[in-house]
Amino acid sequence: DASDIEKGTYPHYMLKEIDEQPFVMRRIIQKYQDENGQLTIDPQIIQEVLNADRLYIIACGTSYHAGLVGKQLIEKWAKIPVEVHVASEFSYNMPLLSEKPLFIYISQSGETADSRAVLVQTNKLGYKAITITNVPGSTLSREADYTLLLHAGPEIAVASTKAYTAQIAVLAILAVTTAKAKGIELDFDLVKELAITANVMEMLCDAKEEMEKIAREYLAATRNCFFIGRAVDYYVCLEGALKLKEISYIQAEGFAGGELKHGTIALIEDGTPVIALATQEHVNLNIRGNVKEVVARGANPCIISMRGLETDEDRFVIPAVHPMLTPLVSVVPLQLIAYYAALHRGCDVDKPRNLAKSVTVE
Ligand code: G6P
């Protein structure tokens, strides 16, 4: 049928969409460049961001995880405070808002009812809203004041992959263009750094055999799996765990490396897989300490680190990218590991049980 043709030679949409990520990165760079090759965003949007004293990112699922990374980028580069909220909580338990809030809705589909419920409320309150979405003309795009498009192409697999990395890239562009508008000097060129991440993504997409091996070794028979990381790696761990849960049905949790010992370490048994991300220099020793803690309780560790921070015990080393952009690359091995774990366990990768691509009920 038609969907088979679109899949081309790929066995699943998810694998095709994982592989499309370097291409999507390059397309985003192009789409957001002006005629001089400078990254640019609608000046009206930048003005709204400058007018705000705080940004509120509202999203669900994978888009929420992209929002967490976005907060880091906007706060570090553009120096504007950002809160990130799960839409279904925000709508019934709205926090005390700042004086001049600006809302950013992140939604691949632009149709998620939980996010729309919040948008309806903030519109009523008279607050301005930007939607970051993959679907032009979607409900959230139409009902917000402004739209930033992901340009990722249709995402068919229920488990979101290329939309996540596209959302982070667009948030990075928003952060950098806002910083420039504020006169903040940044010591890197985002066009160049994103181009490097695209190349590294491509190398990681070529590491499928290795990821398949890791999935087979660690996840073929396990009941559960933990992902640990610190700083921005923690946010990627949340997404890695979500991917694994969604398609392989392995009970997985992403944890802040330092928090596991405050309770959840009780679940570590002989052989429990613990996937640790180590891409952040300032917490590299800390996360390695956390790995030792779980290994002492019998865990089977799989450390994925970044070039320059690696040690002999690491299972896989990602080529180096800008330290703030590591989520764009560190998520790729986790996506592939989830994919192969699901395959090994005989799961329906593209259509996991109980899940819908877009949830249009609250
Ligand atoms: C559903 C999908 C998730 C997705 C979430 C938010 O639950 O299964 O993959 O992350 O909705 O979707 P959105 O389209 O708003 O990004």
UniProtKB/TrEMBL annotation:
GO CC term, one of those recorded: cytosol
Single Gene Ontology BP annotation: UDP-N-acetylglucosamine metabolic process
Enzyme Commission number(s) from the entry: 2.6.1.16
Superkingdom field: Bacteria
Function: Catalyzes the first step in hexosamine metabolism, converting fructose-6P into glucosamine-6P using glutamine as a nitrogen source.
Subunit structure: Homodimer.
GO MF entries: carbohydrate derivative binding; glutamine-fructose-6-phosphate transaminase (isomerizing) activity
Principal EC category: transferase
UniProt key word Iron: no
Organism of provenance: Saccharococcus thermophilus
Name the UniProt record assigns to this protein: Glutamine--fructose-6-phosphate aminotransferase [isomerizing]
Lineage: Bacteria, Bacillati, Bacillota, Bacilli, Bacillales
Keyword Cytoplasm: yes
Residues annotated as domain SIS: 45-184, 214-352
Keywords from the named record: Aminotransferase, Cytoplasm, Glutamine amidotransferase, Repeat, Transferase
Subcellular location: Cytoplasm
Originating gene: glmS
Catalytic activity annotation: D-fructose 6-phosphate + L-glutamine = D-glucosamine 6-phosphate + L-glutamate
